[in-house]
Design goal:
The complex is a heterodimer.
Chain A lengths: L12 H44 L2 E2 L7 E2 L3 H4 L5 H33 L5 H13 L2 H11 L6 H8 L14 H26 L3 H9 L4 H29 L3 H6 L11 H11 L3 H29 L5
Antiparallel strand pairs in A: 1-2
Helix pairs in contact in A: 1-12, 3-7, 3-9, 3-11, 4-7, 7-9, 9-12, 11-12
Chain B lengths: L6 H20 L7 E6 L3 H18 L3 E6 L4 H11 L5 E5 L3 H6 L7 H5 L11 H6 L1 E2 L2 E2 L2 E7 L1 E5 H6 L13 H10 L6 E4 L4 H10 L17 H15 L15 H6 L3 E6 L4 H4 L6 E4 L11 E8 L6 H14 L2 H9 L22 H7 L7 E2 L6 H11 L1 H4 L5 H30 L1
Parallel strand pairs in B: 1-2, 1-3, 8-9, 11-12
Antiparallel strand pairs in B: 3-11, 4-5, 6-11, 7-9, 7-10
Helix pairs in contact in B: 2-13, 2-14, 9-10, 16-18
The chains are: A mainly alpha, B alpha/beta.
């Protein structure tokens, strides 16, 4: 019998390894090529500015004249600066109220839509509209809604006998007013993520829970919530990061007032850098904010190991 | 014929397209011509600057390249342009920002260019705009408009109440003004409107003989009796006398919008709003600012053109010619005829024509013929001063804190800002050598 190909046994283990590696290398190369545009973007627009901020934070620089060396002086200025701490407090208040409220609202709506609502795509699109609308436009509409005497919010409250506050100029209500607007603006994003997560939960798990005699709350706690935990984790992390960077709505709706009740950290950084021309100090503040976000995100990732359930 | 695109070819094409887009994005703007920067927030303003641009091309025989930016974002864009060296040869500056930029070396002094140009007559510019455009004894900019704050009044409302039109030459007293504002206040009608901001407060402070800073500009003077009296007077109009429309928020509150409703008798504003108030559906005019203990000496504001510090060599020559053209009588005639504001040159003054009937008082005030004016005194860190006062003072207008409490809280921080200002001046002087 004529044999025109080499038998498989003729290849050595080394040759076999090389042959197996080749496609893997090719795959890796393709992967790198796909990642490259994002990587270049990351290096130029994220890592680069962070490094630059690190350098600038060690300088006295007013933007126009040559910078001079400041060492750690800009970081030392943070301690005795009451505006910085008050802005940080306001930002924390905003984050720790708006994120849970946004998540509860998003999850509730996602659960509602997931319960066989007809024309779900229409509702999903409508509810996503606030998220898709630019913040500046939304902020101006909400300024109008919050007008104390003739605004829609107080008019509605008036119908149920409540004398609404002077929302945006009240010491106590300006921040809650901003939070309410932000929740309305951003719940759509969480809702879509949760909806996708809910629709990916295998029906067998619900059937098994039913067989076991679980009621609705037990099913939600033991099936839905664990299976949804990766989506929940993603929304919490991105919402916390986004909330720590809150800027535009506060600038437009209250300009940080009344007093400094709604001055957020990013607003203060912007003012320090571009209105007070104190680039070094603004960079130091930015790095501290970056540090806060990194620490909080790291803590969330640590908690993830205990609280987030991955199917695999 | 169908051609199949392999994954590799697709990647190559995508990469090339990306590089092309990046190259297009990185390419700089026009590199020749007379580039200048200006703010512009409405089609009417845009038209004025287009006419300016055509005038520049006629006069200089070079391409005019204006960069127009909405006024809200103009300072930030200008900062970025100045830092990146793309600011153009001449940039417009609001007068209150001139010390800020000058102290930081963003713009160059013009004294050498003025001295070396026998055709240029600085004396043809009103004294207040020359003061506003100077810093540390040097001229950093040349004005294109200048005007004192005045009071607009709704003639229709006054006539309906049988109140005679106020004198265009004799400023009324603060007491008379308050009484009139009260008399003209009724259901859905208000006697007075102004912005709850330091920009509007300073006119009252100057009229009372006070200022934001002391004479040496190294300490706050808001707690001096004169300034306190002025702030209390205005706050009382809001909180005690309730002659002003209710404040809905502290960001978009606009005295112009209130006045244009037609139910406000008096508005605190500048002649730069004449062009907008001309759209009013009622009769109106302007009068001198009410006189306090120091007389009628309201804030005089103005805007100017300056040359960035990075402009040198042949560019500097063109920049100076461009700046002279943009502030020439011909250009300011265009500006004044459009009714934008009172031009900065005496020789172009007559071009700012009525209505309103009393418009002439603007020039008379600037020339010191009636009442007076007080150049807007600003420090090299006025942005910070404005922020501080803008955050804490409006709470008095809302009745949330008393004037005394607010100023007691502001004073130590304002003192620190005054010290910083002195540091800025010292650093600028050291740079000057």
């Amino acid at each position: 019998m004529a044999v025109d190909t080499l038998p498989a046994a003729a290849t050595t283990p080394r040759q076999h390894q090389r042959a197996a590696k080749k496609p893997r290398n090719k795959e890796a190369l393709t992967a790198w090529l796909f990642i490259l545009p994002s990587l270049i973007g990351f290096l130029i627009f994220t890592a680069g500015p962070v490094l630059a901020a690190g350098v600038i934070s060690l300088l006295n620089w007013n933007l126009f004249s040559s910078p001079t060396w400041a060492g750690l002086k800009n970081f030392a200025r943070l301690g005795p600066d009451p505006t910085f701490w008050s802005a940080l407090g306001n930002t924390a208040y905003f984050t720790f109220v708006s994120v849970p409220v946004t998540i509860v609202v998003s999850l509730a709506l996602a659960l509602l839509l997931n319960e066989g609502v007809r024309r779900i795509a229409v509702f999903r699109s409508l509810l996503l509209l606030p998220y898709a609308t630019i913040t500046v436009a939304v902020a101006f509409v909400w300024i109008w809604l919050y007008i104390p005497r003739d605004g829609l919010v107080n008019a509605v409250l008036g119908l149920v006998g409540i004398d609404g506050p002077q929302w945006l100029i009240s010491d106590n209500w300006a921040m809650p007013a901003l939070i309410a607007m932000s929740v309305w603006k951003s719940f759509g994003f969480g809702m879509v993520v949760f909806l996708a997560g809910l629709q990916a939960i295998p029906q067998q798990l619900y059937e098994a829970a039913k067989v076991d005699g679980s009621n609705a709350w037990q099913t939600f706690r033991s099936v839905t919530l664990p299976m949804l935990s990766p989506a929940l984790f993603f929304v919490v992390v991105t919402s916390v990061i986004g909330s720590f960077q809150v800027f535009d709505q506060a600038l437009i709706m209250t300009n940080g007032g009344p007093g400094s009740r709604t001055t957020t950290l990013v607003m203060y950084i912007y003012r320090t850098g571009f209105e007070n021309y104190d680039q070094g100090y603004a960079a130091a503040q930015s790095l501290v904010l970056f540090g806060f976000i990194v620490v909080i995100t790291a803590a969330q990732f640590l908690l993830q190991r205990r609280l987030v359930h991955y199917d695999n | 014929m169908q051609t199949q695109l392999s994954r590799r070819s697709l990647l190559k094409l995508t990469g090339l397209a990306g590089l092309g887009a990046a190259a297009a994005g990185c390419s700089s703007g026009p590199s020749s011509g007379a580039a200048w920067a200006m703010w512009s927030s409405s089609p009417a303003e845009r038209k004025v600057w287009e006419d300016f641009s055509a005038y520049v091309e006629r006069e200089l025989k070079v391409e005019s390249l204006p960069t127009l930016t909405p006024s809200g974002g103009y300072p930030t864009k200008l900062d970025l342009q100045l830092v990146s060296g793309t600011a153009g040869l001449v940039t417009a500056l609001n007068g209150w920002l001139i010390p800020t930029y000058a102290a930081r070396g963003a713009h160059r002094p013009l004294d050498d260019l003025i001295a070396g140009d026998p055709d240029f007559d600085l004396d043809d510019f009103y004294r207040p705009i020359r003061d506003i455009s100077s810093f540390n004894g040097q001229t950093y900019a040349i004005g294109f408009d200048v005007a004192p704050t005045v009071i607009y009044y709704n003639k229709t409302l006054l006539a309906a109440k049988g109140i005679p039109a106020p004198s265009p030459t004799v400023p009324m007293s603060w007491a008379t003004f308050r009484d009139l504002a009260k008399e003209l206040t009724g259901p859905d009608q208000y006697g007075f409107t102004c912005a709850p901001s330091v920009d509007d407060l300073v006119s009252w402070i100057y009229c009372a003989g006070g200022n934001v800073m002391n004479e040496a500009w190294d300490k706050s003077a808001l707690n001096a009796p004169e300034a306190m009296e002025a702030v209390q007077y205005v706050v009382d109009l809001f909180v005690k006398d309730k002659v002003t429309p209710p404040i809905a928020n502290l960001v978009t509150e606009s005295s112009l919008a209130n006045f244009m409703e037609g139910n406000v008798a008096f508005m605190h504003n500048g002649p730069w709003q004449v062009v907008n108030v001309r759209k009013a559906k009622f009769d109106w005019d302007i009068m001198p600012f009410p006189a306090g203990a120091a007389g009628s000496t309201p804030r005089v504001s103005g805007s100017s053109f300056a040359i960035p510090a990075k402009v040198r060599g042949e560019d500097l020559d063109l920049a100076w010619k461009l700046l002279k053209t943009l502030t020439s009588e011909g250009a300011l005639d265009i500006y004044a005829e459009a009714g934008r504001n009172n031009p900065a040159r005496l020789s172009a003054g007559s071009a700012f024509k009525p209505p309103p009937d009393n418009l002439g008082i603007v020039q008379d005030i600037l020339a010191g013929k009636i009442a007076g004016g007080h150049p807007f005194d600003v420090t090299t860190n006025w942005n910070q001063v404005k922020q501080l006062l803008g955050q804490d003072l409006p709470r008095t207008f809302l009745g949330q804190v008393s004037v005394q409490e607010a100023i007691d809280g502001i004073t130590p921080r304002l003192d620190v800002l005054m010290e910083q200002h002195q540091d800025n001046v010292r650093q600028a002087s050291a740079r000057k050598g």
